[in-house]
């Protein structure tokens, strides 16, 4: 921020010259060791919180990606692991990441999703996966290629011992999940990735609600919204990323995605009433997004449609206008 007011400018100059501004009161004193200990405590606590969020995002998100692999136009192979190293973390937090999360120079397994190929193969936190003698880093091309096989033997280092494990990779939707440290309650899709803020992770009261949010963002990617909106942007000069019908479509398709993954849609529409509590001015602001009441009612209606299908043993597939829709679309 730039200080423009002349008085503030003078004050700022005085502060810089004097080292510290003189206060009118005597401040309580604290000790250096107490300050250092509190710094370590806050960094550790913050990293543990982030790690818990990324674990939950992996656990819930992976279920949504796996259950909808046949509906998603693009897919990828997956083991269900998060790999990290010091470099995964911002520079200021690397020492803390080493201390608190066990991040090292070599990329190693940070999280194993439950019921995943990695979990079934007995892979553990701290394991270093080797391909051609090299540790596999996040997003490794070598691992991506190796995962095309139905079954693959991985060389793993665990506590300085080398072992071989057999894994059977699974096919999941192409989108990848990311966590963004931010207090804003938000989530985004860009055609390839799904980003969820820590604010959203905290705001979602249940795993069902989080699955609904992930389903919504996944639908933006799978339904080709990103490409369509880029088209709209060029044609009409809209300043927004998505338009209203696409938001409603993502709510609708996303609800199918979450139910197909085994999550319970009953009551998830309450998310919009709670969001109204913390953001009352947005309840009826409808420039770019549908209003909260609109979304609340349509999600409840979609849930009734899904419950009817389940009661009748019908396939849990959204009502496409064109039954061949999936074959024509690509994401991104
Ligand atoms: Zn959206």
Order of helices and strands: HHEEHEHEEHEEEEEEHHHHHHH
Q: Number of domains in the coordinates?
A: 2
**Nearest-integer average pLDDT:** 89
Chemical compounds bound to the protein: zinc ion
Name the strands of the widest sheet in spatial order: 5-4-6-7
Poorly predicted residue ranges:
1-12, 328-332
End-to-end span in angstroms?
36 Å
Number of helices: 12
Amount of beta strand: 15-25%
Instruction: Output the radius of gyration.
Output: 24 Å
Topology (SSEs and partners):
Blueprint lengths: L5 H13 L13 H36 L7 E4 L2 E4 L9 H8 L6 E5 L4 H4 L7 E4 L2 E2 L5 H6 L5 E7 L2 E7 L2 E4 L2 E5 L6 E3 L3 E5 H6 L3 H16 L2 H12 L7 H17 L9 H9 L13 H20 L13 H4 L4
Parallel strand pairs: 9-11
Antiparallel strand pairs: 1-8, 2-3, 4-5, 4-6, 6-7, 10-11
Helix pairs in contact: 2-3, 2-7, 7-9, 9-11, 10-11
The structure holds zinc ion.
Pfam family, one: Peptidase_M48
Organism: Algimonas ampicilliniresistens
Protein name: Peptidase M48 domain-containing protein
Notes on the structure:
- The structure is a single chain.
- The protein has twelve helices and eleven strands.
- The chain is an alpha+beta fold and 332 residues long.
- The strands form four sheets. Strands 5-4-6-7 form a four-stranded antiparallel β-sheet.
- The N terminus and C terminus are likely disordered.
- The structure holds zinc ion.
- Zinc ion binds next to α7 and α9.
Summarize the structure.
This protein has 332 residues and is α+β, with helices and mostly antiparallel strands. The chain has helices spanning 6-18, 32-67, 94-101, 117-120, 141-146, 198-203, 207-222, 225-236, 244-260, 270-278, 292-311, 325-328; strands at residues 75-78, 81-84, 108-112, 128-131, 134-135, 152-158, 161-167, 170-173, 176-180, 187-189, 193-197. The chain is flat.
């Amino acid at each position: 921020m730039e200080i423009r007011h002349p008085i503030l400018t003078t004050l700022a100059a005085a502060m810089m010259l004097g080292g510290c501004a003189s206060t009118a009161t005597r401040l309580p004193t604290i000790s250096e060791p107490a300050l250092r200990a509190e710094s370590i405590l806050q960094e550790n606590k913050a990293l543990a919180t982030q790690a818990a969020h990324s674990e939950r995002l992996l656990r819930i998100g992976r279920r949504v990606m796996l259950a909808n692999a046949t509906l998603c136009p693009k897919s990828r192979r997956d083991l269900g692991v998060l790999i990290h190293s010091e470099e995964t973390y911002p520079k200021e937090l690397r020492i803390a990441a080493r201390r608190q999360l066990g991040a090292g120079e070599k990329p190693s397994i940070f999280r194993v999703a439950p019921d995943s190929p990695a979990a079934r193969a007995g892979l553990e936190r701290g394991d270093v996966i080797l391909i051609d003698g090299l540790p596999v880093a996040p997003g490794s091309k070598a691992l991506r290629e190796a995962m095309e096989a139905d079954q693959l033997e991985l060389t793993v280092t665990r506590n300085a011992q080398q072992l071989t494990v057999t894994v059977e990779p699974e096919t999941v939707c192409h989108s990848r999940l990311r966590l963004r440290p931010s207090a804003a309650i938000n989530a985004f899709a860009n055609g390839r990735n799904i980003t969820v803020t820590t604010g959203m992770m905290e705001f979602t009261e249940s795993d069902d609600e989080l699955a609904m949010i992930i389903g919504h963002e996944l639908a933006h990617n799978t339904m080709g919204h990103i490409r369509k909106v880029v088209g709209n942007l060029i044609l009409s000069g809209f300043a927004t990323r998505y338009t209203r019908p696409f938001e409603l479509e993502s709510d609708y398709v996303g609800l199918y995605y979450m139910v197909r993954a085994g999550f319970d849609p009953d009551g998830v529409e309450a998310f919009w009433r709670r969001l109204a509590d913390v953001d009352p001015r947005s309840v009826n602001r409808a420039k770019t997004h549908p209003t909260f009441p609109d979304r609340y009612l349509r999600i409840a209606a979609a849930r009734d449609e899904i419950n009817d299908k389940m009661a009748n043993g019908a396939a849990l597939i959204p009502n496409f206008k064109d039954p061949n829709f999936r074959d024509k679309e690509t994401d991104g």
